[in-house]
């Protein structure tokens, strides 16, 4: 069970990551990236960010690899934005959120 502090930090990180991906959309092959969930460890040292990716020009795997390659840059930018709110920015692990694909697949199966 997550504490109130974990929930607050997770929401803050989700909001800031979403804004960052929106501002730097051109860096990620013009993909539309939505941060669906951020889960943070109890000691606030690591965070798992689940991303929903819509990319007309590239695969989701390509976009997530670009994001994983820029993890240090993302963390540094968050550190400058949140320096007065958080003492330490967590390490990020990015995952593709495929829940919408799963829902669509189930929907297609039910229509048959």
Can you offer a commentary on this structure?
The protein has about 110 residues and is α+β, with helices and mostly antiparallel strands. It has one domain: K homology (KH) domain (GMP Synthetase, Chain A, domain 3, 2-Layer Sandwich). Helices cover about 50% and strands about 20% of the residues. It contains four helices and three strands; from the N terminus they run αββααβα. The protein has a three-stranded mixed sheet with strand order 1-2-3. A hairpin with a 5-residue loop joins strand 1 and strand 2. The mean pLDDT is about 90.
Question: Can you lay out the helices and strands and say which pair or pack?
Answer:
Layout: H1 4-23, E1 32-40, E2 46-54, H2 60-69, H3 71-81, E3 91-96, H4 99-111
Parallel strand pairs: 2-3
Antiparallel strand pairs: 1-2
Key features of this structure:
112 residues, alpha+beta, GMP Synthetase, Chain A, domain 3, three-stranded mixed beta sheet, 4 helices, globular
CATH superfamily: K homology (KH) domain
CATH topology: GMP Synthetase, Chain A, domain 3
Helix content: 40-55%
The general outline is globular
Instruction: Tell me what the CATH architecture is.
Output: 2-Layer Sandwich
Mean pLDDT, rounded to whole units? 92
**H and E string:** HEEHHEH
CATH hierarchy, class:
Alpha Beta
Counting structural domains, the number is 1
